[in-house]
Each structure stands twice: as structure tokens, then as C-alpha cells.
Recover the amino acids of this structure.
């Protein structure tokens, strides 16, 4: 199927109001999959603003996110704003859905314990819209009791976790930790959006 046909197919299932998705991206090699996810969301008419962590920009550069999302990349809580609202508050109020993909073990831990040391975690702490995390990491890191405890803490708060897949990981190990592919991620997000936008 051509990219043009994919965009036409996505246009056929657009909601009446284009969803606004705040996409947090953390430092993991799986960032490359999320480039395709952003393209699919934009083709579907969704508005996407990308909030990468500084480490994420070591994997995929700012110009890529800006080009694919068709919006400036959100990097700093101190960026100029259209009004007096701090940037993390403005972004938290703008979105219908906050997605973090890939979500590293480090960012999962921060979100579970309420830490806010970058724009992504600051916006997540301020956001009252549905939060979806797609973890991606080494299999041993995913299986670690601390990571599993953080996952359970987040689920208990109503955060939706899209479990990582089993497969060959970038480190050469086979196990659980792969980020689902763009098609699977897009389908899961589409289901959540069509199912309603209840606040958490």
C-alpha cells in the first residue's frame, strides 16, 4: 500500500473534531518507530505536538519531529507563550490525549513518583486528560521489580499502559521490551479516542 493510499484510508476514519495529541518521546532506540506513528496521526487529521526529552533528541533530531508533526517541537517550559500561562500548563490544557512513546524506565519511574524535571514530566503532572504510556526497554529492565511496581502504581491511577511486545531487542537480547509497531500503536490510540475522552 502506498503512503498516499494510507493517508486516504486514515482520512476516512477521522473524528468530527480532530483530536489533539501531546506526544512525549523519551530516549530509546524505538524512537524511529514513532516517526511513522506521527505521520499516521497527521494523515488522519490529528493535531500532534511533540515533547521530546533531551535524550530523545540524541536518537531523532528536532527537525524530523517538526517536519512530521507540522508544529514546532516543544522543548522548554520557558518558551514564549501566547499568553501568561507557563508552557507545561498550556500544553496540558491543549491536548485531548497525552501519549508517551517510547516511554523509558526512567520516565516511567519519574511519572510514578511525581517527579517533574523536564517539560514532558511537568506537563504530565499538570495534565488531567487521559495519559497513555508505551514502555520500551531492555527485557531485564522491564522485568525488574522496581519497573513492575511503577507500572502497577501508574495503572492504579488510571494511566493506560500499552504493554511492550516480545521479540528481538536492539541490545541483541530476545525478550519482552519491544515497542509495538506504528500500526498497533495507532490502532490502540484510535480506539481510545473513539471510546471517549474521560478525564482521569
Amino acid at each position: 500500500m502506498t503512503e498516499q493510499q494510507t493517508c486516504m484510508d486514515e482520512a476516512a476514519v477521522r473524528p468530527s473534531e480532530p483530536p489533539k495529541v501531546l506526544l512525549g518521546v523519551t530516549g530509546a532506540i524505538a524512537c524511529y518507530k514513532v516517526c511513522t506513528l506521527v505521520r499516521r496521526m497527521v494523515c488522519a487529521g490529528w493535531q500532534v505536538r511533540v515533547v521530546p526529552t533531551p535524550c530523545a533528541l540524541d536518537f531523532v533530531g528536532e527537525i524530523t519531529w517538526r517536519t512530521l508533526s507540522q508544529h514546532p517541537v516543544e522543548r522548554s517550559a520557558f518558551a514564549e507563550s501566547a499568553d501568561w500561562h507557563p508552557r507545561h500548563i498550556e500544553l496540558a490544557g491543549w491536548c485531548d490525549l497525552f501519549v508517551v512513546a517510547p516511554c523509558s524506565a526512567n520516565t516511567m519511574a519519574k511519572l510514578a513518583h511525581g517527579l517533574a524535571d523536564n517539560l514532558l514530566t511537568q506537563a504530565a503532572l499538570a495534565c488531567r486528560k487521559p495519559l497513555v504510556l508505551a514502555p520500551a526497554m531492555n527485557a531485564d529492565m522491564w522485568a525488574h521489580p522496581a519497573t513492575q511496581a511503577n507500572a502497577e502504581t501508574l495503572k492504579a491511577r488510571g494511566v493506560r499502559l500499552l504493554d511492550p511486545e516480545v521479540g528481538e531487542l536492539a541490545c541483541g537480547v530476545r525478550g519482552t521490551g519491544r515497542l509495538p509497531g506504528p500500526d498497533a500503536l495507532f490502532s490502540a490510540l484510535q480506539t481510545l479516542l473513539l471510546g471517549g475522552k474521560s478525564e482521569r
About this structure: Strands lie at 20-25, 47-52, 97-103, 131-135, 160-161, 165-168, 174-178. Residues 8-15, 196-200 have pLDDT under 50 and may be disordered. The two ends are 37 Å apart (CA to CA). The CA atoms of residues 114 and 154 lie 10 Å apart.
